[in-house]
């Protein structure tokens, strides 16, 4: 759980109301954009009273952080399962690339939620932008660590290449041919692994 400026969201409480707010916010923020969706709409669609909202979140920025943190935690959990199943290494990177490719080709794909959030909150000092950077650094470090265990000569540079491939595929998949973007990502990650 992320820390906020001391508001109720720091308690780490789980509740059905909080889950409904996050689920509704996640859907609306991703499909329509964060700044385009107000807290009143999230509360209305989640069927949550204002008082209940403020018991769980300090305000909209705290809700946005909750959305990004929940998205981050979901991705981390899926990667952990994939790492356990594959044993890591090249097999893990292949699963990650294919999983991102499936996401790109999935219905309702609207790009990377973190890149989208960073575009709406460009100030690097903003807690929302910081949440984006935290997720991206975790992902890049995961790649670097995985590549290092495989004996890749320059795991840092190779990790940066995979992140760039992923970012490009996310944008290309949203703006163009999603299947081509997914294939390019998988092939690109395979080339990075093979050239290491």
TrEMBL record:
Transcription in keyword set: yes
The keyword Electron transport is assigned to this record: no
Coiled-coil ranges from the UniProt annotation: none
Superkingdom, natural source: Bacteria
PROSITE patterns: HTH_TETR_2
InterPro entries: Homeodomain-like_sf (IPR009057), HTH_TetR (IPR001647), Tet_transcr_reg_TetR-rel_C_sf (IPR036271), TetR_C (IPR011075)
Any GO MF annotation of the entry: DNA binding
Protein name: Transcriptional regulator, TetR family
Organism: Actinacidiphila glaucinigra
